[in-house]
Amino acid sequence: MKKINNYIITAFLLCTTFLFAQQTPAPKQTKAICIMGATAHIGNGEVIENSIIIFNNGKIETVADARLVKIDISNMDLIKAEGKHVYPGFIVPNSTLGLGEIDAVRATIDSDELGSLNPHIRSLIAYNTESKVIETMRPNGVLLAQITPQGGRISGTSSIVHLDAWNWEDAAVKVDDGIHINWPRPYTRGRWWRGEPSHLKPNKEYGKQVEELANFFKQSKVYQQSTKEVKNLPFEALAKVTNGSAKLFIHVDDAKGITDATEFAKANDIANMVIVGGYEAYKVTDLLKQNNIPIILNRVHSRPNSDDEDYDLPFKMAKKLVDSGIVVALQANGDMERMNSRNLPFYAGTCVAYGLDKEEALKLITSNTAKILGIDDTFGTLESGKDATLFISEGDALDIRTNKLIKAFVQGRNLSLESHQTQLSKRYSEKYQE
């Protein structure tokens, strides 16, 4: 009887999820569009106060000061945007968007797999473009995401998608961009539920866990040099990071782990490495600079890990790293990560409140992220030749009070900014206005 009830509850939750249909993906751009008069935040630190932006066939053709150029716009769709702001689409890395829907219903979660060493697991083919959560990203300007598997020691392979598509094939921007490793923890805390002290202590299994990873990489190299008579999918996938065609994303927070992970990458001749998390990265900035290692920083809106740390350390962490010359991007990891991804611009806004220049903070969710993910030739800034993935906001997009989108485009396609949340808001606003 309990099993039957569980099936009924699951069916009810799934049905109620689809009461509001996902917005139909926008059609392909058919006519040139000109945005006139807005303040253009290029994404590389530059700002054009009175701009003209023209894009056609999904590509940006012109970004200039409207006072300095003369262009015939008579055959274009004109958007008058005086007093408004234009930004490149925000990019959220290390995300499970489209890989899960209702946390309480296991059947809707597809973010991890059984086993520990899964470099061959590809998140892209599990990406669900019909997710209700995805459409709630766009009204805040989050238009691109790195879809990343979770769990295990080697979680699998991520891909980058834009957040308006019919299916995962249409959504794909960069396929299999990197493999993700959850680095072992050098230190652990006592299990309070067993009465153990909660202070940090050495992880007795740390050396063994690192050695297991090293052996797996050694075996992969041996396989690559073999005749490959028997195909090994994990080793085939791992070859992408050893030959440099994909990046290695190592998820690690503590200074010792970051140091050991860096040495591990060097020992395995891995040129393209990224630290994900990096809570104590500010303690080893010289090492990171010497090895040209960027950071996808932990969620800004979080608490310090230790009682003796500054209460605002997570808020000012980005500035510490940027001032040290590290390339930094922001993510929305942690509890409720998928839902919190829509708050990405406000994490950047908090960095501004704690000392970082506003245009530098914008880079944390645009050009820096694009550079780290290897898509900066197409996304991340408002420049001629790049994809027209951008949006218009009534005010400062990093400020929760003024981030109010009026238009958004992905590859020149005019997106709907409606979602089940905006529909419900209008529905009940009308009720209580009466």
From TrEMBL:
Residues 348-399 form the Amidohydrolase-related domain. Keywords: Hydrolase, Signal. Transmembrane segments: none annotated. The keyword Signal applies. Residues 1-21 form the signal peptide. GO terms for molecular function: hydrolase activity, acting on carbon-nitrogen (but not peptide) bonds. It comes from the Bacteria. This is Amidohydrolase. It comes from Oceanihabitans sediminis.
